[in-house]
Amino acid sequence: MEITNNIKYVGVHDKKIDLFEGQYSVPLGIYYNSYIIEDEKNAIFDTVDVNFTDQWLANVKEALGSKAPTYLIIQHMEPDHSASIVKFTEIYPHAKIVSSAKAFAMMKGFFGTDFSDRQIVVGEGDSLSLGEHNLKFFTAPMVHWPEVIVTYEEKSKVLFSADAFGKFGNRDLLDSWVDEARRYYIGIVGKYGVQTLALLNKLSNLNVSQICPLHGPVLSKDLGFYLDLYKKWASYTPEDDSILIAYTSIYGNTKKAVMYLAEKLREKGTKDVTVFDLARHDMSEAIANAFKSESLVLATTTYNADIFPPMHQFLKGLTERNFQGRKVAFIQNGSWAPTATKVMKAILEGSKNLDFIEPEIKIMSSMTEENKAELNALAEALLK
Ligand code: FEO
Question: What global pTM score does this model have?
């Protein structure tokens, strides 16, 4: 696949992986992207996961023909991109490795390698000429690890963005991009919004024609759309005024209250209400959707004088990603000593700018007529 006349795609599609990073379900697999720029000097951007080294090396060889690679540019050291470095250096002993100082230290940690005789250390604003193409490097600490760099090629105006703008699953640009790029960004980089905004700010003066991330499709059109979404995610701004109801239910009574609230919200004119059963739904999708929505309703049972475990996991997933700036409402259930709302509020204590919406609903085993009236009032309050 050609990105431009001189920039080619040499990545691979991992369709067999069960869990990305050992935790994220990826039913459509994940792409480990890699690119080649052909010029007087040839540069390869990043390697691939250890299970695809041979396939990637074959792609590289096919793309280069009889030419040799001059540079291997390592933008990110997470093993999904770095695991094939050593094999590459053995096959191409004259190629130089270009990366950040932190990345070379990590190579030593991961592989025990010392590339001091063939390394080129680059940092903020450094350039590297390939001939007609000129690479400009920008540091991108914590998007997603501290050693990350991104690269702008000035002739083609192509941005090699490392993990930024990546997505799980296929390289489809249509329906799935937003949902799967959101789940990827919030899950993997979501804690580091400040650092992501800093990178977006650095890149804002560049005239970018295409974005080549390390996962998912190359972005070639409507780049403003993707940049705006990234700005929202990085600044913890809701994408819309939707309402997410996240619940757990042991015997179905809390679920009945949740469904009653969802029905009342829809009756009162809200189209965008999403309900997630945290024990059964993909947790990373639930977490990502909490960052998408303006309002979050938390409904759970008291359990061991605490809260039901999936709700605990959900809230931890939010707080460790700096969940903030949302409306939050609470529904608790408990047959003799309900404490769930108190526990949930304590977990959210350090989260900034949360607006707790009244009334808080307390169910003693099953929903009563009084609870229904309170849920009606809560629906009204959420829609204000
Ligand atoms: Fe795709 Fe942070 O590695």
Answer: 0.96
